[in-house]
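REVIEWER CHECKLIST
Item 1: Sequence provided? yes
Item 2: Single chain? yes
Item 3: Sequence as submitted:
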Amino acid sequence: MEHGSKSESRLKLSDFQAIREEEIPDATEGVELDLTGSGSSYSGDCARSYPRLIMEANGLGSQGFPELKNDTFLRAAWGEDTDYTPVWCMRQAGRYLPEFRETRAAQDFFSTCRSPEACCELTLQPLRRFPLDAAIIFSDILVVPQALGMEVTMVPGKGPSFPEPLREERDLERLRDPATVTSELGYVFQAITLTRQQLAGRVPLIGFAGAPWTLMTYMIEGGGSSTMAQAKRWLYQKPQASHQLLRILTDALVPYLVGQVAAGAQALQLFESHAGHLGPQLFSKFALPYIRDVAKRVKARLQEAGLAPVPMIIFAKDGHFALEELAHAGYEVVGLDWTVAPKKARERVGKTVTLQGNLDPCALYASKEEIGRLVQQMLDDFGPQRYIANLGHGLYPDMDPEHVGAFVDAVHRHSRLLRQN
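Item 4: Structure as written out by the authors:
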């Protein structure tokens, strides 16, 4: 089966919330739509084409997705040779862009996440500025705990907050059946379908989710933490309950990720953002088995559903102690943070996986000339093939968009020179 532009995913009715055709208003030039109940309206390309796309997503149309014009990212992910090094940035749709801040000002964070039109617009914004080789859907890893029945709010200046975190084993009874998650997250699938159409084949679209351990930390800590002491207390004092929660999260993540592919995602990234809080032993016991299980079951479900395979990326921040294990966990790409030396990483994982990363995000505070030098060194260390350029973590809100552009341009420029020599 081909992995390139001709292997297009077909949409399934069961993966989306039902929307009757008569409930969708006509979309004409200049009409603003509020199709999500969020209270915010959107105009322009995303709003105008939204009804047609939802009809297609629900089996009411026969149009496929536009043919992919730039498959460099996908070819690199699959381990195929590329003419240059593809590049994208974690959190490329973010607060460093003034247009992002303007779009987001109208509503709170999770209302934005529940608006397919808003997610489409935010996903496309960095593509209008920079010649990136992939888009990643605007969403959040914490929509999964929300779909399981937990209340999550985003507090300005603080971050995510769970008013009623999990404290005791009996609290697991509060969680919804993980089989219901896809019906709760139809707005994510709709956003992916809408964005995939609006990309018009320019670059591939990446879907994503948080890994089970990382989601568990938020659900128990009630938000961010510098130590994850409460979540780790569970691992030591409630190991059986910990595994039960991790299984619930895995059972929720598998259909959610498959649904993203059915909706149009062409690659998937799993974020194990809190890997560094676990040492090798705890990681091997409470994180790695579920990381493996997600990849194995997603691939099997895609095949069962008749959907084309997509490359999967695992990014375990500060998980340098488990590089070898991650390279054999069933993912085509292993993402690296900036604390890992590229040459040593390649020696450790071998040549069977693609590496992604790993410029220190703070390097973008440097001059454009220095960014160019740092990118050159990074590309020299990674080598020209089986490599996707990225940062070692997400972009920060105070970064200069022009320096992000300098990073992207430097990757393209130097990687082409590297192949000539």
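Item 5: Key structural point noted by reviewer: The radius of gyration is 21 Å.
Item 6: Recommendation: ____
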